[in-house]
């Protein structure tokens, strides 16, 4: 699936376009929401690409924004139609909308650059590691909810297994030492990282403790690159997730390249993982 065939990616781009034309028309979110008789928060969710919009409401907004370009209107209406389609993750109905949106974007991406300060990237987590991590959610999900989240994470990993997605992951050394799930689970996770590193589409690098301070020490992030559209930056937060485009993608790419320069080479990173694995939890 290319980016422009992905309902989530299309919905995300449609929302960005609607926000742009609204701002150019000097219409507030509250004023726009009144036009289609929804709350301002719902309007913002539409602009964030988290929910779709039907043709009558879209036409009403475009009228309010003074959009007369017939080609642009047709394009946006077509995007709204595509954005209503559902992905495989729709069967997991209790997933947060922000997570569903990320899965959709990830499924359409060609390459993901992921920097993690505390945990193994989701695309490389073992089932036991993912279960231990999800079980510690402060919102105390039920055992059934935990298993659904783990199942989603495992299905996401098919993108790596089938070679549809390339992953460049930079990890702080702390990720390798944190005993999530206990010694046995962590030993299995380190083995999985070593196995993943053998794939042509996975590159792992570790920033060692001895590197000292480096860029973006306090913030993990993802850069999703698409074959048929602009890149997107994703930053997960407790109070809400952030998606950014344009200059923010370029800035984060500069930061990611700096992180790679601070990290060990892929081969030296693998050597470090093997050394930590060999030392065991009592090192």
Descriptive report:
Pfam families: DUF5753, HTH_31. Residues 18-72 form the HTH cro/C1-type domain. InterPro entries: Cro/C1-type_HTH, DUF5753, Lambda_DNA-bd_dom_sf. The chain is an alpha/beta fold and 283 residues long. The chain has 13 helices and 6 strands.
Question: What is the element layout, followed by pairings?
Answer:
Layout: H1 7-24, H2 29-35, H3 40-47, H4 55-64, H5 70-82, H6 97-108, E1 111-116, H7 127-135, H8 143-156, H9 158-161, E2 166-172, H10 174-177, H11 183-196, E3 202-207, E4 221-226, E5 229-235, E6 242-244, H12 247-262, H13 266-279
Parallel strand pairs: 1-2, 2-3
Antiparallel strand pairs: 1-4, 4-5, 5-6
> In percent terms, what proportion of residues is strand?
5-15%
What separation lies between the terminal Cα atoms? 45 Å
Fraction of residues in helix: 40-55%
Number of domains: 2
The strand line-up of the biggest sheet is 3-2-1-4-5-6
Average per-residue pLDDT, rounded, comes to 89
Q: Tell me what the CATH architecture of the largest domain is.
A: 2-Layer Sandwich
Rg computed from alpha carbons, rounded to a whole number of angstroms: 21 Å
Give the overall form: elongated
User: What series of H and E elements makes up the topology?
Assistant: HHHHHHEHHHEHHEEEEHH
User: What is the class of the largest domain in the CATH system?
Assistant: Alpha Beta
CATH topology of the largest domain: Endonuclease, Chain A
- Counted by DSSP, the helix tally is 13
Counting helices, strands and paired strands, the structural category is alpha/beta
Poorly predicted regions are none
Biggest sheet character: 6 strands, mixed
Task: Give the number of DSSP strands.
Answer: 6
Q: What oligomeric assembly is this protein in?
A: single chain
